[in-house]
């Protein structure tokens, strides 16, 4: 396959060619498209309120009210309020409990890839990086986000104010669209430039405290991506190229691995690895699916 | 053998150096982020002191620690009074406020904005809108107030939901014409709700009556000031035979 590529340099530059050839365009972009639909649907559910007067979801991603009864709140902002020493109304706390419950069940960073609007921007940045084949310029440690999370929770103790909410890009997008508060979008522009030109996947995979918190929440989730057919892997590395958290793929594709599930909760369950893999190595599954749990050791030669 | 060892050592050396470098970088980043955020958040408090908050809002510092910037109060307000602050607006980004000159608070009986607030940054105990303290109206420019000029404008007085309570017309002899009276709009800060209807309705190009946040509109007597209740003190002194 490599030889074929070098003969036709045009197709060699095209990413995930094998998957598109093998599975068709839709087959190689399914979860990308479904995720965009999901992200935009959530936004639309909020937006039809102010724009059309259909109030299914009120508020924004920080806190909202579903069908005028069920509260939903961002656990990070709720924690910040608690840290600042204010005891909120019970609905805010209940909303946070509900959200934690949902994502503990579905997988924490499902929020990141299926709901969060910032993800669209950071994915775009990474796509541009790929198109322009920009070199990696500098590296920052992955666990910086957990320090960010710590910082975001400590600052309210020190200042008595929910400091992070000045900047937090996640609600910034929603506030811009729903409440016409567009001047905060510079935060998003900074993230876009940072991701494109400074550090690959800088924001979502290294810095975002919301992602860090959801990653912690997702530790208990039964829903996982599994390399159910790891023996079919031909080491094309397409999944590594597309995955925003490529470190999570190593354990399951390593030679001799008998663990099919991506257990690392940094996995955003975006499903892009499923999309771009021509031999269909990956699949959504749950941790208790016994079909996958005792797999024969891999025989593929490892070039990882 | 020694070759391998030295190789290993150099690898370890690089790793250790890398580790120290990344740790140093990481701490620098965290420090800068923390400092930056704290500066922005604490500096913008004294810079943006003029935001008029929704009814029942806690004192500004408590409000800023409680409000999750969800906009539920904004969406609950039937009159489009409330807005979420944008960056560089008059208030910390994302928090609700209103500009009385554009749309004042209509003082809804059922106070939907307060009911909608999940964080308690709008005090749920507020059940009578007349008790709310969004701010205090201040007749800030006597020079341009038509009533102070001896005319009968009275617009602010007449639009006030608490007419003759929050705002009264105090009669004063007009020294200029010598036989007319002036009707001076006078606000009782104990009753004014800060709804801003007066500021909204003021006929001058720039409102001469403005709603200010309580902490700006109100002075504060010093705790050691024994002359706070002037009449009492004066009587007391007279009774004791002290010279004034
Ligand atoms: S990491 Fe943060 S910004 Fe990125 S998708 Fe997740 S929540 Fe959104
Ligand atoms: S492993 Fe797959 S689902 Fe998980 S983050 Fe990477 S590409 Fe997305
Ligand atoms: S009392 Fe009524 S008009 Fe005033 S801010 Fe609340 S909802 Fe809006
Ligand atoms: S409803 Fe409460 S928490 Fe939400 S924006 Fe308004 S004041 Fe803030
Ligand atoms: S703000 Fe003006 S209109 Fe409102 S209560 Fe006070 S004096 Fe009356």
Automatic annotation (TrEMBL), chain A:
InterPro entries, per the entry: 4Fe4S_Fe-S-bd, 4Fe4S_Fe_S_CS, Electron_Trans/Redox, NapH_MauN
GO CC annotations on file: plasma membrane
UniProt-listed PROSITE patterns: 4FE4S_FER_1 (PS00198), 4FE4S_FER_2 (PS51379)
UniProt entry keywords in alphabetical sequence: 4Fe-4S, Electron transport, Iron, Iron-sulfur, Membrane, Metal-binding, Repeat, Transmembrane, Transmembrane helix, Transport
Organism superkingdom: Bacteria
GO molecular function: 4 iron, 4 sulfur cluster binding; metal ion binding
Taxonomy of the source species: Bacteria, Pseudomonadati, Pseudomonadota, Gammaproteobacteria, Alteromonadales
Transmembrane segments: 40-57, 92-125, 146-167, 173-194
Name of the featured protein: Quinol dehydrogenase ferredoxin subunit NapH
Domain 4Fe-4S ferredoxin-type residues, every copy: 224-254, 258-287
UniProtKB/TrEMBL annotation, chain B:
InterPro entries with a match to the protein in the record: 4Fe4S_Fe-S-bd, 4Fe4S_Fe_S_CS, MauM_NapG, RnfB_subfamily, TAT_signal
Source organism per UniProt: Shewanella polaris
Gene3D superfamilies on file: 3.30.70.20
An MF annotation (GO) of this entry: metal ion binding
PANTHER family: DIMETHYLSULFOXIDE REDUCTASE CHAIN B (PTHR42859:SF10), OXIDOREDUCTASE (PTHR42859)
Keywords, sorted A to Z: 4Fe-4S, Electron transport, Iron, Iron-sulfur, Metal-binding, Repeat, Transport
Protein name: Ferredoxin-type protein NapG
Keyword Iron among UniProt keywords: yes
Domain 4Fe-4S ferredoxin-type: 57-87, 183-214
Pfam families tied to this protein: Fer4_7
């Amino acid at each position: 396959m490599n030889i074929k590529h070098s003969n036709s340099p045009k197709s060699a530059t095209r990413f995930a060619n094998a998957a598109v050839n093998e599975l068709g365009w839709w087959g190689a972009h399914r979860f990308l498209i479904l995720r965009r639909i999901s992200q935009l649907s959530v936004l639309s559910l909020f937006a039809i309120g102010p724009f059309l007067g259909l109030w299914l979801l009120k508020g924004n991603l920080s806190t909202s009210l579903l069908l005028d009864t069920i509260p939903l709140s961002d656990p990070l902002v709720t924690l910040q309020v608690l840290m600042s020493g204010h005891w909120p109304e019970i609905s805010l706390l209940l909303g946070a409990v509900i959200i934690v419950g949902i994502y503990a069940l579905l997988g924490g960073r499902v929020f990141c890839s299926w709901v969060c609007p910032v993800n669209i921007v950071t994915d775009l940045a990474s796509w541009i990086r790929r198109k322009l084949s920009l070199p990696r310029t500098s590296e920052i440690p992955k666990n910086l986000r957990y320090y960010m999370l710590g910082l975001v929770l400590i600052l309210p103790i020190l200042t008595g104010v929910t400091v992070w909410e000045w900047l937090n890009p996640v609600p910034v997008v929603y506030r811009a669209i729903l409440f016409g508060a567009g001047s905060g979008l510079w935060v998003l522009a900074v993230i876009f430039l940072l991701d494109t030109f400074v550090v690959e996947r800088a924001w979502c995979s290294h810095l975002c405290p919301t992602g860090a918190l959801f990653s912690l929440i997702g530790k208990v989730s039964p829903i996982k991506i599994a390399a159910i057919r790891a023996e079919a892997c031909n080491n094309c590395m397409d999944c590594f190229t597309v995955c925003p958290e490529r470190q999570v793929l190593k354990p399951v594709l390593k030679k001799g691995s008998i663990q099919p599930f991506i257990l690392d909760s940094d996995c955003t369950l975006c499903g892009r690895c499923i999309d771009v893999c021509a031999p269909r190595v990956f699949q959504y599954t749950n941790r208790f699916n016994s079909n996958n749990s005792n797999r024969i050791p891999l025989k593929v030669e490892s070039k990882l | 053998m020694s070759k391998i060892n030295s190789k290993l050592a150099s690898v370890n050396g690089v790793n250790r150096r890398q580790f120290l470098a990344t740790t140093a970088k990481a701490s620098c980043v965290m420090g800068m982020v923390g400092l930056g955020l704290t500066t922005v958040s604490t500096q913008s408090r004294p810079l943006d002191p003029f935001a008029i908050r929704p009814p029942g809002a806690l004192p500004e510092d408590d409000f800023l620690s409680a409000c999750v910037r969800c906009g539920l109060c904004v969406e609950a307000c039937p009159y489009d009074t409330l807005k979420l602050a944008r960056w560089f607006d008059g208030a910390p980004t994302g928090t609700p406020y209103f500009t009385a000159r554009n749309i004042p608070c209509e003082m809804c009986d059922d106070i939907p904005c307060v009911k909608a607030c999940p964080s308690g940054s709008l005090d749920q105990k507020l059940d009578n809108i007349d008790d709310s303290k969004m701010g205090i109206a201040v007749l800030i420019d006597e020079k341009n107030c038509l009533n102070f000029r001896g005319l009968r404008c009275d617009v602010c007085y007449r639009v006030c939901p608490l007419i003759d309570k929050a705002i009264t017309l105090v009669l004063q002899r007009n020294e200029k014409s010598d036989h007319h009276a002036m009707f001076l709009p006078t606000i009782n800060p104990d009753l004014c709700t800060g709804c801003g209807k007066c500021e909204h309705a003021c006929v001058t190009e720039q409102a001469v009556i403005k709603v200010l946040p309580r902490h700006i509109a109100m002075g504060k007597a010093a705790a050691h000031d024994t002359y706070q209740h002037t009449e009492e003190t004066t009587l007391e002194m007279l009774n004791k035979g002290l010279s004034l």
